[in-house]
Amino acid sequence: MINQIKLRVSRTIKAAIQQAINQNEISLESIPDIIFSPTKGPEHGDIATPIAMSLSKLAKMPPRQIAKTIVKHLVDDPLIRQVEIAGPGFINLFVSEDWLYEILENIIHQNKNYGRSQSNISKRILIEFVSANPTGPLNIVSGRAAAVGDVLANLLNATNQNVTCEFYINDAGKQVERLGESIDIRYRQLLGEEELEIPEDGYHGTYLIDLAQLIIKNVGKQYLQLDRDIRINKFKNIGIQHLLDGQKSILKRFGVEFDVWTSEQKIRNDKKPEQIIEIFKQKNLLYESEGATWFQMTKFGDDKDCVVIKSDGEFTYFVPDAAYHRDKFDRGFDLLIDILGPDHQGHIAHLDHLIKALGYNTEQFEGLIVQQVNLVHPDGNRVEMSKRKGHLYTLDQLINELTETVGEQFAVDVARYFFLNRTNNSHLDFDIKLAVTRANDNPSFYVQYAHARCCSIFREMKDRKIDQLPINQVKLNLLAIDEETQIIKKMADYPEVIMNAAKEREPYRIPKYLYELASQFHTFYNKSRVLDTKHQDLMQSRLVLVRCVQIVIANGLKLLGISSPEKM
């Protein structure tokens, strides 16, 4: 609805500019699109446009003079209630409140679909996220990536895109070989072998002791009879499956499920990396140096070339990554989105070069960085987290600790809101003790409580046997006080907030919006009586308002993967 209003106002402003051109008051060859922006506050209008400043250079006139000329030629439009010129030339517009009541009707009629795009333009989009190595439990950094990826998929689906979520299992290469070796040492240690130590580049976490104990419980000492290489390979496969099952389990608990799980080992088994090397050979993009095979990354704007086959014949990670992305394109997706960790900034540029070298359009690939989550000690110092060294704070631990404070029902809600309430590029300093002890003050509860308050009003209405009229029988124009109109205007923004959050790949905009809407509703609730049977018409109009707030908050929380409790 707000977009329709902007479109209509845009036409009115363009007509005013054209009238000024016709009367030689402004000299322009063409009229650009009218851009709108939010105002500083309701006292400055509902929407503003900087068009006068945009035209200043083209028309060779001061922007305020252009603004005055435009306003002079604005035709009477019942939608525009008042116009002001502000600052260097902003045109602030106050919109007639008649449109507000159409917003309420739209929300009621669309219900769970309110905010979702009706656009017919749809793309097949693949989002790959988390993709943690199956060498340990998921930590809180992966938890943040899981929340961001899941909500981004929800947002894109809400804008009528066809989204597939994928987890890439890094189950090949040196890291899983070291996993097998580390399990082997733990297994033999538990069976009495002394003077065994996990190597520096192995995995030191106690979770492998637990796994080794489980293996002993199942098979006892029988694996000691196997040749070392066979035994380590068996432990590698057991470890990958066990740890991957654990990752899947906590992701499901966290409310994140993937459509596709793709194995790097299968990519390798299918000889797809060899196909990449052959393609690059045919394009004369490879050369030999220092016993290794190099890819000419500098041909694509990088500052240096990179090794793709090491002197020992092993592929570097570039090759299976290129093969994996070729496989994605071959599956027919229109857009690939990779959500990567903070140490992969340079990798995005490399992937761009590799994709271009393979002949694909790099505009069909996006790499997004989700920044670090730092565990902070109560003394203010950051705690080092390392899977190899066994310094872990896992997503499972976080949810378990939150569960002890707020219960299983809300533990995931608190964690997800916490991860989503900042921009992807912002670091999160996470003081777990502070987070747990203050869990009941988490902003997620502030938003959920607004929904629960709406539900409580309707429960009381039912208990008091008050009937709610159909919306076409309600005098919606009675919603006239500032708190009421500001809530409606805020709800009118919701579809555009979703559209922009999806377009800019910024899920944090949704919790920010919901918190602001909840704040407006709590203010209204504390000042205004809804179930006032002495004023039947006003009561019925306010019941419509409350129902709309309930719908919008529930829809927004669903996008975030957070529950909408009816009681708190």
Structural overview:
The structure is a single chain. By secondary structure, the protein is α/β, with parallel strands linked by helices. Among the domains are: 2-96, Arginyl tRNA synthetase N-terminal domain (Gyrase A, domain 2, 2-Layer Sandwich); 101-119 and 442-560, Isoleucyl-tRNA Synthetase, Domain 1, CATH 1.10.730; 174-242, no CATH class. Helix content is 51%, strand content 11%. It is built from 20 helices and 14 strands. Strands 6-5-4-10-11 form a five-stranded parallel sheet, with helices on both faces. The longest helix has 26 residues, at 228-253. It starts with a helix and ends in an 8-residue tail after the last helix. The model has no long low-confidence stretch (mean pLDDT 92).
Mean pLDDT: 92
Main sheet characteristics: 5 strands, parallel
**CATH architecture grouping of the domain at 101-119 and 442-560:** Orthogonal Bundle
Unreliable stretches, pLDDT < 50, 5 or more residues? none
Summarize the structure.
The protein has 568 residues and is α/β, with parallel strands linked by helices. The protein is built from 20 helices and 14 strands.
Task: Set out the fold topology.
Layout: H1 2-22, E1 47-49, H2 51-59, H3 63-72, E2 80-86, E3 90-95, H4 98-110, E4 124-128, H5 140-158, E5 162-169, H6 174-190, H7 207-219, H8 228-253, E6 260-263, H9 264-269, H10 272-282, E7 286-289, E8 292-295, E9 306-309, H11 318-330, E10 335-340, H12 345-357, E11 365-369, E12 373-376, E13 382-383, H13 395-406, H14 408-420, E14 428-430, H15 432-437, H16 443-463, H17 482-492, H18 494-503, H19 509-527, H20 536-560
Parallel strand pairs: 4-5, 4-10, 5-6, 10-11, 12-14
Antiparallel strand pairs: 1-3, 2-3, 7-8, 8-9, 12-13
Helix pairs in contact: 1-3, 2-3, 4-17, 5-18, 6-7, 6-8, 10-11, 11-12, 13-14, 16-19, 16-20, 17-19, 17-20, 19-20
